Amino acid sequence: MIASDGVLHVLGNPSGKDIQKPTPFLPPNANWSDPVAVNTSLYTGTSNRCGDAANGIWAIDLAAENKPVSSWKTNGGGIVGSVALGINGMLIAAIGPGPASAGGYANAIVSIDPATMQLKDWFTDPGAEFVSTPVIFSHGDLDIVAAATKDGRILLLDANSLGGANHSTPLHSYKSPGVSGTFAPGALATWQEMLPAPAAPSAPAPPAAAGAPAPAPGPPAPTVVPGTRWLLVPTANAITALKVVDNGGKPSLQQGWVSRDLASPVTPLIVNGVVFALSSGRAVSTAGATAAELAKRSSPAVLYALNGVDGKELWSSGKTIASFFPGKSFWSANGQVYVGAYDGTLYAFGFAMERKH
After folding, report:
1. d(Cα 55, Cα 77) in Å, to the nearest integer?
2. Cβ atoms of 47 and 78 closer than 8 Å
3. Number of neighbouring beta carbons within 10 Å of residue 208
4. For 29, 96, 157, 299, which has the most beta carbons within 10 A of its beta carbon?
């Protein structure tokens, strides 16, 4: 936990007490994103130049005796959403708009070496105002970075060469009427179908020579193989599912399905091919609203289970949740999906068959 004074507290579970000496990490009153733990280090991004914190990515080594802090400054826009960890081990972050000094970055995706906190690569486009945490996945031989922009585009970048030689060329740019551009930080999610492996043709084993030991069995045949990769994009009132496909040897996006109407949906959860979509019910415009006004203008949240391949509704929580979802407390564990509502109630939804197995 990072306190308002920028001090990092490492708390025990379930005691909730400090298990390490509290350590200064960020400047006071910094606007920081959800931290990411990699081995013994913790990383977070800062934005809006709140307090004395410059926009950038910050790291602290929790295993070192003196808990050293290092950082990389954008000298421009703030970090959008959270910092992501790439498949290649690099930190990947989206940078929003803002005035950039010489050598600074705005409207960019950057790759940072977590060991040295030095810039390794970047993509930048003055017209691309990023509004989502990057999502990273493998497709064929490529590691792909996907990010959403304010004007409703989804950009696909090569994680090992973010913008190509000129640092401004994406692998693919996608926009459709089903993607409106009203994204929230962290909005994208991804999953991949796993299909039954085709049966391998059987061939009789050659007879063993007299007295020879029996041949060792080979490795077991795979039971599943990767299928379609999906990218899920929540907008103001629905979730749009896009397929990742090959187009002339390059990855591209293709319209899949659009969910039923959802009130301010949040980043969905995917469990075994089922998309858990949360209609948060939170009022769209909340700037300056008091807690009472926000509650009055919002509606109760509803959790939906959708078929990940076609978006058809499998189940819903109906009127179970009595208040709207304010953000953050939505996760899955141990066969349950948990939703924390504005009124302080934590709801747990599960399936008897899933718990049985």
Report:
1. 7
2. yes
3. 10
4. 157
- Tell me what pLDDT residue 183 has: 63
**What are the tens digits of pLDDT across the range 57-104?**
999 999 998 999 999 999 999 999 899 999 999 999 999 999 999 889
Token pair 């703030």 in the structure block, residue: 78
Overall average pLDDT of the 104-120 stretch: 96
Q: Cα(98)–Cα(55) distance, rounded to whole angstroms? A: 10
Taking a C-beta distance cutoff of 8 angstroms, is the pair 330, 324 a contact? no
The two tokens of residue 246 are 């090959």
Strand duo 23-24 + 36-38: pairing:
unpaired
Q: How does the average pLDDT of the chain come out, rounded?
A: 88
Structure tokens at 32: 């920081």
CA dihedral (251, 256, 261, 267) in degrees, to 10, reads -40
pLDDT at 13 over 80: no
Tokens for 305? 């289970």
Q: How far apart are the two ends of the chain, measured CA to CA in Å? A: 35
Burial class for 213, CB neighbours closer than 10 Å (0-12, 13-18, 19+): exposed
